[in-house]
Amino acid sequence: MKKRSEVISQGASVPATPGLAEMKARALMLKENTDAASEAMNQGLDDGERLLIELGFSQRCTVDISSDADEAAGEELGLEFGLLEKLGWRLYLRRSFGDFTKDDRTTLLTNASRETRMRAANAFPELLRVVLEAAEKQFAELERAANAIGTQPARVLTPVAAQPTPKVTPPQDDFGGGDFSSTSNDDLSF
Question: Which label site among 19, 162, 170, 180 has the fewest CB atoms less than 10 Å from its CB?
């Protein structure tokens, strides 16, 4: 078998491999795209946490986001929304080691690795579903308690809908004319 250097010196064609400049350009583009996607994911998680806080449901809820490696090590990792001492209601991770909650460790989601935040982002819709189910259960219990003492809680009978977008009226000229949005100065002649 001939060495590559021998084949090149004999004038045989060698499959083209990307040069260093092309690989560097590709790597830079990939880095920029990865950074932008990571920032979008982080913003989505921040928005989700704000939504949960604004809803004001005082229920701790968790969904499992354990990886195979976590499970092999006998650990569980949960995406949790709950009350943290000195921080208030937050979105965080709870790592459990067996059945003893005194050994659990919590980490704010913002301090987690990118891989873990990706798992959390994929699990967020499930966490939101769990929070809503807990809120519905809490409401039913509160309603039963209020009825038990002879009071009736106020109810919103239909879901709160987004406010309709106001209709925009096109600008009018002094003569009652219509829309000038497509008129440029070049179209006006005197």
Answer: 162
Distances (CA, A) of 72 to 64, 66, 123, 166: 15, 10, 20, 56
Give CA angle at 28 (23, 31), nearest 5°: 125
Tokens of 74: 């006998």
Calculate the dihedral angle through the C-alpha atoms of 128, 132, 135, 137, rounding to the nearest 10 degrees: -130
pLDDT per residue as tens digits for the range 121-172: 999 999 999 999 998 898 888 888 888 888 876 666 555 555 555 555 555 5
**Residue 101: beta bridge partners?**
none
Distance of alpha carbon 153 from alpha carbon 144, whole angstroms: 10
C-beta atoms surrounding 88 within 10 Å: 8
- For residues 80, 81, 84, 86, the Cα torsion angle rounded to the nearest 10 degrees is 140
- In this predicted structure, what is the pLDDT of residue 184? 44
- Rg of the chain's alpha carbons, rounded to an integer? 29
Specify whether the CB–CB gap between 93 and 80 falls below 8 A. Answer: yes
Question: Which is nearest to 50 in space by CA: 77, 79, 81?
Answer: 81
